[in-house]
Design goal:
The chain is mostly helical. It is built from 7 helices and no strands. Helix 3 packs across helix 4, helix 4 packs across helix 5 and helix 5 crosses helix 6.
Length: about 130
C-alpha cells in the first residue's frame, strides 16, 4: 500500500452525504424539527444537538404510544389502531399520561365527571333562605 496523502483526500472528497437523522440513528427528521424550532421563535439561539434530542424524544413518545395502542387493538381483535386505542394507551401509561397530562380531546356530548362539577347550594336550602 502506497497510502499517500492523496488517497486520504480522495476519500474525503468522495464522502457520501448522510442526513443528521441517519447519523443519529433516528427515523424522525432532525432537519424538519430544527426548521420548526427556528420558525417557532422558541429561543433566540439553540445548540446544534437540540433538534437531534427533540427528534429523539418525539420518536420515543410516538413509539411508546403506538406500541401500547397496537397491543390494545390486538386484545380487542382488531387489525387497525383507532383513536380510541391511542386514548386508552395514554390513559393506561403513567409516563404518557404525565407527559401529555391527559390532553386527549374529549367528546363534546359526554357528561362532566363528578369531580369537575361546580358546587352549588341545593334548592332546598335556597328556598328556605328566600322564605325567611
Amino acid at each position: 500500500c502506497s497510502g499517500g496523502p492523496s488517497e486520504g483526500s480522495e476519500a474525503k472528497a468522495k464522502k457520501s452525504r448522510s442526513s443528521r437523522s441517519s447519523r443519529a440513528g433516528l427515523l424522525f427528521p432532525v432537519s424538519r424539527v430544527e426548521r420548526q424550532l427556528r420558525r417557532g421563535h422558541f429561543a433566540e439561539r439553540f445548540g446544534a444537538r437540540a433538534p437531534v434530542y427533540l427528534a429523539a424524544v418525539l420518536q420515543w413518545v410516538t413509539h411508546k404510544a403506538m406500541d401500547m395502542a397496537g397491543k390494545i387493538s390486538k386484545k380487542s381483535k382488531q387489525q387497525r389502531i383507532s383513536p380510541s386505542h391511542l386514548q386508552m394507551a395514554v390513559r393506561k401509561s403513567s409516563v404518557l399520561k404525565q407527559l401529555l397530562r391527559g390532553g386527549m380531546p374529549r367528546r363534546h356530548g359526554r357528561a362532566v365527571p363528578q369531580s369537575q362539577r361546580v358546587a352549588s347550594p341545593s334548592r332546598k336550602k335556597m328556598t328556605k333562605s328566600k322564605k325567611r
